[in-house]
Design goal:
Layout: E1 34-39, H1 46-57, E2 61-62, H2 66-73, H3 77-80, H4 84-105, E3 108-111, H5 117-124, H6 128-132, H7 135-145, E4 148-152, H8 170-186, E5 192-194, H9 199-213, H10 220-231, H11 235-245
Parallel strand pairs: 1-3, 1-4, 2-3, 4-5
Length: 299
């Protein structure tokens, strides 16, 4: 077990609220941020949607940190909640690592959670009042508000046990759902609700909102198709490239004419009588220039 988790939780004090340390609230102006969050209670399908966005748009996915912290504690979630000091340290550490994971990912990622564990902290812990006084919380909520937030609502059909929760009660899911909504409203975080159970309607909603919010964020398949099309030259371009790469055509060198010996001096030349065809001289031999034929196929 990590030593700091056996004591009172440390204040967040994350360096992300200071502008000179890679502030999470001030992304570089040279990059267009594409931060996408799926928030809500457990067992609502957030992770499935986040993986869909990861695979469709090629965004890095921020992995859940809660399970890794539980593994470090070597305790189940049900046993953890029986120890108030330990659950307080656990929830603060989960929130801290979420912030650090987003800082390390930069300003382009998809995450299946954000501040969601604070709802569990309010439900199971006793230090929420301390966290509310930490300026790091407000700074982080402003950072989340600058991204694209989908609030995924619960359905009884999705409530099922998993590797962390041995028992899932829909009443608990609804309770956490209400706390997440309270945090969204309290910090004025803009969000879009996903309330339908149909996966087809869910992904259609997500795709359309991403298209409107981040028009430059094209799906991977479309980007690869555009890149392939940009790399294939058009017929006219291919013809120009072929002509540029072809070796220059040179005319064969002509053999030098044999030297004509100087004629011996003789009698004066006799003037040639004018032609008998009315003064029109014999036509000169026409010299044809070499013609360059385009042999590039039209395909």
């Amino acid at each position: 077990m990590r030593p700091e988790m056996a004591t009172r939780p440390r204040p967040l004090g994350h360096p992300l609220s200071t502008p000179d340390s890679g502030s999470i609230g001030a992304p570089p102006a040279s990059r267009v941020p594409a931060r996408i969050y799926f928030v809500g209670a457990h067992a609502t399908g957030k992770t499935t949607l986040a993986r869909y966005v990861r695979d469709r748009y090629g965004l890095p996915l921020i992995s859940e940190v809660a399970r890794s912290i539980l593994a470090e504690l070597e305790v189940s979630l049900d046993r953890l909640r029986a120890n108030l000091d330990l659950v307080n340290c656990y929830q603060v550490e989960v929130f801290r690592r979420q912030i650090e994971a987003e800082r390390d990912a930069g300003d382009t990622f998809v995450s299946d959670r954000a501040f969601c564990n604070l709802a569990y902290m309010a439900h199971h812990g006793t230090v929420m009042h301390e966290l509310f006084r930490d300026p790091a919380l407000e700074a982080y909520m402003r950072w989340v508000a600058g991204g694209l937030v989908f609030f995924v609502r619960p359905h009884p059909e999705l409530a099922q046990s998993d590797a962390v929760r041995t028992a899932v009660r829909f009443e608990d899911i609804v309770l956490i759902d209400g706390m997440v909504k309270l945090l969204l409203e309290m910090y004025a975080v803009p969000y879009l609700t996903i309330a339908t159970l149909s996966m087809q309607e869910r992904v259609r909603t997500v795709d359309e909102v991403i298209r409107l919010r981040y028009p430059a964020l094209a799906p991977l398949r479309a980007r690869r198709r555009d890149e392939a099309a940009a790399g294939e030259p058009t017929p006219a371009k291919a013809q120009a490239q072929a002509q540029a790469q072809a070796p220059a055509q040179t005319q064969p060198a002509k053999a030098p004419a044999p030297a004509v010996p100087a004629a011996a001096p003789g009698p004066p030349a006799i003037p040639t009588p004018p032609p008998s065809n009315g003064g029109i001289a014999d036509p000169l031999l026409t010299r044809y220039r070499d013609l360059s034929f385009d042999v590039t196929p039209d395909s």
